[in-house]
Amino acid sequence: MSQQQWTAVDDYITSVLLEPDKALDAALGSSAAAGLPPIAVSPAQGKLLNLLARMMNARRILEFGTLGGYSTIWLARALPPDGRLITLESVRKHAEVASANIARAGLADLVDVRVGAALDTVPRVAEDIGGELFDLVFIDADKPHNADYFAWSVRLTRPGGVIIVDNVVRGGNVVDADTTDPNVQGVRRLNEVMAADPSVSATTIQTVGAKGYDGFAIAVVG
């Protein structure tokens, strides 16, 4: 199996199971034009996030890592009219591109884009939401801080809620205990934290596709 074949299968899945979508295409196009890195989730992965949120009847969603807002749009579309999505982005330029993309998709009233390092902004989120905990959290930000983001997510997610962490296989490098790669080290620390926390039940799924060989972790709280 090759990257070419993985991409071809992803393209096939997208062409058969996903409808053409101008807002999502525009989000990718404007992100590329602004020079944002091409690291958004794939269309099939975005649809999975949307389906998971819909399965849960999610009303409140938290996202770590907005980038250009592509995954944000997929998630926000699953919300009811009175739902809310808070997304945290450390780079102001990315947040500006994302805000424009989200507005173009007609979702500005549902989405709150907050700019700043997530570990600085998430305590304010905790204050703002009061007792209204999140149903779903999606973590797709800088990998060295994955375990810290996860710890905050557990604190802010309702019992029965779900936390998803992207890019946790790292091309298979996650098995290397001697790695000096801070991204892989961050994933391994995340795994240790998930394993040691009795309040969550978690697993990781390996994936291949247009984004290469990677995977995501999924945890249920409570």
Walk me through the structure.
This protein is an alpha/beta fold and 222 residues long. The protein has a single domain (3-221), classed as 3-Layer(aba) Sandwich (Rossmann fold). Helices cover 44% and strands 23% of the residues. It is built from eight helices and seven strands, in the order αααβαβαβαβαβαββ. The chain has helices at 3-17, 22-33, 43-55, 70-76, 92-104, 118-129, 146-156, 182-196, and strands at residues 60-64, 84-89, 111-115, 134-139, 157-166, 200-209, 212-221. The protein has a seven-stranded mixed sheet with strand order 3-2-1-4-5-7-6, with helices on both faces. Helix 5 links the parallel strand 2 and strand 3 (111-115). The chain is globular. The termini are far apart. The model has no long low-confidence stretch (mean pLDDT 98).
User: Can you tell me the overall shape?
Assistant: globular
Count of strand segments: 7
Q: How far is it from the N-terminal to the C-terminal residue, by CA?
A: 39 Å
User: How big is the Rg?
Assistant: 17 Å
For the sheet with most strands, the description reads: 7 strands, mixed
Quaternary state reads single chain
**What would CATH call the architecture?**
3-Layer(aba) Sandwich
SS field, number of helical segments: 8
| The named CATH superfamily | Vaccinia Virus protein VP39
Helix content: 40-55%
What are the segments in which pLDDT stays under 50 over at least 5 consecutive residues?
A: none
Average pLDDT over all residues:
98
Strand order of the largest sheet: 3-2-1-4-5-7-6
**How would you classify the helix and strand content by structural class?**
alpha/beta
Beta-sheet strand percentage?
15-25%
Order of helices and strands: HHHEHEHEHEHEHEE
Q: Can you tell me the CATH class? A: Alpha Beta
For the record, the count of structural domains works out to 1
CATH topology: Rossmann fold
